[in-house]
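re the bet — no i am not wrong, look at it urself. input seq straight from the record:
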Amino acid sequence: MATRSFVPTRFIILSDTHNFEFSDDSSQPLQLPTPKVDVLLHCGDLTDIGGVSSFKKAINMIASFDAELKLVIAGNHDLELDKTFWEAQRHDESVREDPETHELAVKAMTGPLATDAGIVFLNEGTHSFTLKNGATFSIYASPYTPVFCTWAFAYEHHEDRFNEHHQIAKGSTSIAINPMLDHTDIVMTHGPPKGILDWCAQGNVGCPNLLKAIQRVKLKMHCFGRVHEGYGVEVVNWNKPAPGPKPLRKNEAIHRFFEEDPIDNPYPDPFEWQNVASGEGTMAVNAAIVTGSNKPENAPWIIDLDLPLASQSRQGSRLQK
């Protein structure tokens, strides 16, 4: 049996930019020009509270990045992109939102402005891509997170969007329309799994059902944001006991809680780590650009992954499903 070839592929990962704009402010580590990469992943919360003009500003910001492929999902703050949420709002007489705003927001994220910026806006589900370097990968995307206040893309805490009925934990109810598929290479969600880079003042607030799906699939990389205080990276070793809530955890990778020293992100250089064998470990990345005080003081993460080489006929194409 022939050994499958792999090709190094560089990702830049960011999330929770919340209306970020490039400036000369030296306190912002994200500056122009940005390093050239193969793929950009934006894990949601492009805006503070939505707004079509804010989506267009986010598109213009992402256009400044030098990447062959730019994959973007929504977050709970990107209100108009959630059709169910927006329809509920416009039926609320105390709110009276414009019913056309959802369509305008989606058009902004999927129309010519986004296309010209190189953006592919992903809905929930599994998508496949092949790059010019010959690398091919599948990515599962989901903007949904456990309900918190009255933000968009929410599900109840007992509801499981990521696992089918026979895969769920006791006490959970599967509502999965697009469950996470086995053999997925990368997962991009807006929120974290339970116990992994998910700590904030309210404790470990990640989703246990998402964690169950990640444990099942054992993918190469899981990137997310939402919990600004959880910013960092961690290599999760699936051969060790399953991760769980550890409010004071300090892992050996890079993430630090309750310390004044800055997190050592080598941006604009890549974070050095050893790609682990498929199924043995997952690189978890919380890429929130804004901090717990909502200031854009975090840098994106540059991560190199060894991805399988596609057949010659598929190189340079983009496939989605």
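see?? DSSP finds five helices and 17 strands in the chain. told u. also The helical segments are 52-63, 83-90, 101-110, 112-116, 208-217. so pay up
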